Amino acid sequence: MTTSLPATERIAVVDVLRAFSLLGIVLTHAAGGYLAGPPPGPDFNLLGPVDRAVATLDDLLTFGKFFSIFAFLFGLSFAIQMDNAERKGKSFALRFAWRLALLFGIGFVHNMFYSGDILTIYALLGFFLIPWRRVKTSALLVIALILVLNLPGLALNLRSASAPPPTAEQVQASQAARAAFRERSQRQFEIKSAGTATELIEMNVTQSFASKFTFQVITGRLWITFGLFLLGLCAGRMNLFRDTQEHRQFFRRLTWVSGGVAAVTTAIAVFHPFTLQVRDVMGALTSFSFSVQQISLATFYLCVVTLLFWRRPDGKVLPSLAPMGKMGLTTYLTQSVFGIVLFYGIGFGMMGKLGVAWSMAIALAFYVLQVFLSRWWLQHFSMGPVEWLWRTLTYLKLQPLARPAVSAA
For residue 401, is it within any domain? Predict the structure, then answer.
């Protein structure tokens, strides 16, 4: 049995973590020019040695790590919502399912303009959380670790690596598939970098939408994400983000363990870079090591930020991120607007022209701007605009948005 966690204490650290994850997300998207698809060539966005160095650091330290934290927090929020509903004696499953349906709708509209949308994936996977909410925490934890470490992907890759050599017909079919893939990738790049809004929407709701789910399965991101949901659910049940000496000690130990594993697997990634195509046992093990690197480094980041916040909950830096985390959905979607306007042909058309370093620098500046805008917004309004829309549609009743005026004493 878990004890209820004071809302103010819990929300503070979770919102900070959510805002922190959004920093890595906007940097990763910007590094790829918000292409959200296969690049037209190996040197895409690499205009010089500085870009190559920054891109390498992004692959090692940012790519996939912050999305892991974002997904973990989704599962944690699920646990918090479920606990709140049960304490109030309200039904949970149907309301949450309706919220997920609305989230899918928001994500689909988002996907019409930006094919890198993750909300549709979260919404669909979120439905599977509902029947899992009654499973014991110990069982959930085991299953979550199996999925997060991509053990299913390791098994599939080892099986593929030990398969007999392909026949001539299979080689020919594979070559034809790769050629068709390169042609589609080039067309996607052309539309995103210089196409019209109509072309962009038509491509994103058809070809790009299907390609996204294919990518999620091929890379294992689909079950990895669900595993992170389950980990978040476990953390919520265990009240791990309640600031106690026991939990501080837990996070300190986890920091050392995750940091050590991340250091080793990052070194492996430097000497054996990850690729999607696994041809032998070494490739399968390299892919597995990269999955471990992503989750261990994400865990290390999460632990460090949590401990730093608990150490200075009244500080100036981390607490200032909380407003952004409270309106995380609005922040995430606004970052896509930023990327589309800056990089796409329907905007300034800078895709492939800025380079990785400048792209990430501009994204960082935009993130800082979002920090101040979020704080200003929540000084005048009770929630973010998209959160307000989501909540209004959830209850099918217009929700108050403006903060009530505080009268002078």
Answer: no
